[in-house]
Amino acid sequence: MHRITAHQPYPLFNTAATRRLENAAAVALPPHTLMQRAGLAVAQLAQALAPHARTVWIACGPGNNGGDGLEAAMHLQRSGRRVVVTWLGQPDTAPADARASWQRARDAGVVWADTAPGDLGANDLCIDALLGIGVSSSPHSPARTPDTRLQACLQALHRSPAPVLAVDLPSGLDADTGQFAAGLAPDTQTHQHYHLHHQAPPPRHTLSLLTLKPGLFTAAGRDAAGQVWLDDLGVEPGHEPPNAWLSGPALPAPRAHASHKGSYGDVAVVGGEGLAARGMGMAGAALLAASAALHSGAGRVLVALLDNGQQQLDPQQPELMFRRFDALALEQLTVVCGCGGGQAIARVLPEVITRAARLVLDADALNTIATQAALHALVVARGQHGQPTVLTPHPLEAARLLGLTTAEVQAHRLDAAQQLANQFNCAAVLKGSGTVIAAPDRVPAINPTGNARLATAGTGDVLAGMVGAHLAAGASALRAASEAVYQHGQAADDWPARQALTASMLARRVGGR
C-alpha cells in the first residue's frame, strides 16, 4: 500500500479493465482471498490514519464493497476498537465472499446498527464501504433509486465531523468520469456550513483497490476522494493496458553553459484587442501570456497586440519586444494566439494557423475556430504537415469546439479531451480540476497538480504562455502541454498559504528560475 503523490506517474484503469483484473485474480486465487486482502488493507490504513480511534462506524453496502468493509470491521474489532456497522445487505442474498466476511465480523463481536448513528461526533473515524465501483453517472445507465437507509448513510458520511475513509471509491462517484451518479452527490449545504463557520472540512481519504481509477483525479473526484492511497492486493495488471495516466513531473533540464537565447526559441504572443471606442482593452491577457513565456525560459518573447500600435513598451517587463503583426516571421516562431484577441483575432487567424512553426491556440482563437469550418480544416492540416499544435480550452470553449454542452464535456472529460485531439489532429488540454491532456493515438493523461487558487482571471493565459515556452525549447506538442500544465499547477500548490494568487504573480513564478 502506498500514498499517491504528484511525484511520479501512475497508470489508471477504468471500471471494465478493473473488473477484468478482478475476475482473473478471483479465478487464480483461493476463494475469499481478494476480499480478505482488501479488508485487511482497509483496517491497516484506518489504524494508521486514526491510531487513537476508539469508535469506528462502517457503512457497508449489500455487495462486495460492503464485504470489504465487513472484513475490515472484523480486524478493527479484534484490534480493540469499538466497531459499529450499518450493513445494507442480508446474509441470504449477499455474494458468497461478503457473506463469509459478515460471519467473521459477527464472530468477532462487531456491533450492528440498522441506520446511521444519530451522533456522528461520537465516532473517531467513519469508513465508506457502500457502493465502490458499482455505479455509473452515464445517462444511459439504469436509474438508481437509493433506498432511505442508503441515503441516510450517504448523508451521514458527507456531514461527518470525523475523518472518512472510502473503500475503493467515495460512494456514488463514477470511477471512469469523476462525476457523481444522479441522486448520490453530496448536498451543497455541507460545503456552505464549513464555509460559513470558517471551518476546514474533516480529512477525507480513499483507498483504491487493485487499480487507480481515472475518476479519482478529475471533475468532482479530487474533492470527493481527498488523499488517495493504492493497494493492488498483490495483483499485477499483466497485459491489461492503462486507459489513462496520472502525470508526473518533468525530468530536470539543466541548461548548458555554452547555450544562448537562440537555444531556447522565440515565442510570439498574438492577441490583446484594443477597444478604445468602447473604453475597453484586452492587452492584459496577451501580456500575461508573454510574461509566463518569458519566465518559463523562452529565449525571446515578442508581443503583437491587435490594438493598432497603442502599446510599445511594458515598463514592468522591458524584456518583452513589441512588434506589428505583419512584421512577425511566423515560420520561425512559436506563436501563442488568442489571449484577449476578441473579434480582431479573426483577421489574423488564417495566416497564423497556416504559417506558424509551432502554435498554441487559446481563448478567442478557439472561439473563432468553433464558428468557422475552414479554420478547423486549417488546424487539421497542420498535423498532417507535422506542425506542432496545442489547443488549451476551458470546458465552455471545448463545448463550442465539439458542438456539445459544457455539462456534456464535464460529464466525460477524458473522452472530450480525446475527441478534441482526434478531431483537430493535435494535442489538446482540457482545463479544470484534473486537467486532461490528450493527443491522437495516445493514452490521455490527467494532471495531479493545481488547486482552486487558480480560479482567478488570467491564469489560463499564463498556462498558454508556458506551453509556448516549452514548445519553443524543442519539446513535442504533447510533452510541452504535459510539462507546462504540471508546473502551472505545482506553482499553485506551492503558493504561500496567506497570500492571494494573481495571474501576474503566477507568471513570474512558474518557471522556477
Question: What do these coordinates show?
Answer:
Helix 3 (64-78) runs parallel beside helix 4 (96-108) and helix 15 crosses helix 16. It contains 17 helices and 21 strands. The chain has 513 residues and is an alpha/beta fold. The protein starts with a strand and ends with a helix. The protein has helices at residues 15-28, 33-49, 64-78, 96-108, 148-158, 188-196, 221-225, 283-295, 349-355, 363-371, 373-384, 395-402, 406-411, 413-424, 459-472, 477-493, 503-509, and strands at residues 2-3, 10-12, 55-60, 82-87, 111-112, 125-129, 164-167, 204-209, 227-231, 244-246, 266-271, 274-275, 280-281, 300-305, 321-322, 334-337, 358-361, 389-391, 427-430, 436-438, 445-446. The strands form 3 sheets. An 11-stranded mixed sheet has the order 2-10-21-20-19-18-17-16-11-14-15, sandwiched between helices. An 8-stranded mixed sheet has the order 1-9-8-7-6-3-4-5, with helices on both faces. Strands 12-13 form a two-stranded antiparallel sheet.
